[in-house]
Design brief:
CATH topology of the largest domain: D-amino Acid Aminotransferase, Chain A, domain 1
Strand content: 15-25%
CATH architecture of the largest domain: 2-Layer Sandwich
Helix content: 25-40%
CATH superfamily of the largest domain: ATP-grasp fold, B domain
Structural class: alpha+beta
Strand order of the largest sheet: 13-10-9-14-15
Radius of gyration: 21 Å
Shape: globular
Largest sheet: 5 strands, antiparallel
Distance between the termini: 31 Å
Length: 335
């Protein structure tokens, strides 16, 4: 079965007079060939619309954060921490012991995340030194750079921008279950996974995720706990749709000034298409930003919308219309 975006591009390409050649084993890599001889490439979520260096900077959370802050956009206070081998290679002292000391100035709880991964992988909210050390070691299994940030909770939004236009905007809500008075948390979670499959949403909940177990323990629950009817609990601290989060569409209610922020940021980062993640800590995205408190979580140069698509027919139409515009733009715009 082809990945969602590959399949969508294959289906839409004839509408713009193009054909698609797909690498058959994995279906992740493809070429889009136009009648005028123009060739564009697709790899997973990445298309040729963004320049490669700008995309690379956006993928590197630390670099992106530097340039966003330099341009005057608000970001969370924090620093990078390095694995032992990488710290030694670049002659830095910012190893785990440094992180432990730095945590005392930022104050717990803190957010830690890998510098170069996406979709909420290994993002953790840590409440003490032990959790910080364990979380950083987990990150360093797959990334040599971690980011520590001050925890500033609020409403988490993803805004998708394409060429000075807002394509979609939605609030992201962390993975949760709601009690029925008789089912355990584990049973409720399995039901949620089944509902994802039935709706065509390609989301796989990791039942062995240590972060879920830690979150349950902190809230004095376990997988075996029976939740009262109507009782809702959250199982992760990050709200990514890829980890089981839900979305609330705000495309038609987002304030024009927040639209402007997302569009300007995309331009200022040298991108044409992006997913801008904004945390509003006071107020919400329907209000004027001047009346709110907010910061930029990160900017994504290849926003994966397959989970968003599965949340409803309206969302599916929005995404298909966006990629039709992308295909048209790729066919006429030189790299």
């Amino acid at each position: 079965m082809l990945p969602y975006l590959t399949n969508l591009i294959k289906r839409l390409a004839p509408k713009v007079g193009a054909k698609v050649v797909i690498e058959p084993e994995w279906g992740i890599a493809a070429q889009i060939i136009y009648k005028n001889g123009t060739v564009r490439s697709l790899r997973m979520y990445s298309l040729d619309l963004n320049h490669i260096a700008s995309s690379d900077i956006a993928r590197d959370k630390d670099y992106a954060k530097f340039f966003m802050k330099k341009k005057g956009y608000p970001v969370a206070e924090g620093k990078t921490i390095f694995s032992d081998s990488w710290a030694d290679a670049i002659k830095s002292n910012r190893k785990i012991p440094y992180a432990v000391n730095y945590a005392n100035s930022l104050l717990y709880p803190l957010i830690i995340k890998p510098n170069s991964k996406s979709q909420g992988v290994d993002v953790s909210l840590v409440w003490n030194q032990k959790e910080l050390i364990v979380g950083l070691k987990e990150i360093f299994k797959g990334d040599r750079v971690a980011i520590m940030e001050k925890y500033l909770p609020g409403k988490d939004y993803r805004i998708v921008v394409l060429d000075k236009e807002i394509i979609s905007a939605y609030e992201r809500v962390a993975l949760s279950v709601t009690g029925d008075g008789k089912s355990s948390v584990l049973v409720l979670l399995k039901k949620k996974q089944k509902s994802f499959i039935l709706s065509g949403r390609d989301t796989r909940i990791n039942f062995d995720d240590r972060r879920i177990k830690l979150k349950l323990k902190k809230d004095r629950y376990s997988f075996g706990s029976i939740l009262p009817k109507g009782k809702k609990i959250f199982l992760l601290d990050n709200a990514n749709l890829s980890t089981g989060g839900d979305s609330i569409d705000v495309t038609n209610t987002i304030h024009p000034e927040f639209k402007k922020i997302a569009i300007n940021l995309t331009r200022d980062m040298g991108l044409r298409i992006s997913g801008v993640d904004i945390m509003v800590t006071k107020g919400n995205i329907t209000q004027n930003p001047s009346d709110c408190s907010y910061y930029i979580i990160e900017i994504n140069s290849a926003p994966g919308l397959d989970h968003y698509v599965a949340t409803g027919t309206k969302q599916k139409k929005i995404v298909e219309a966006m990629y039709l515009k992308v295909l048209k733009a790729l066919g006429r715009t030189p790299i």
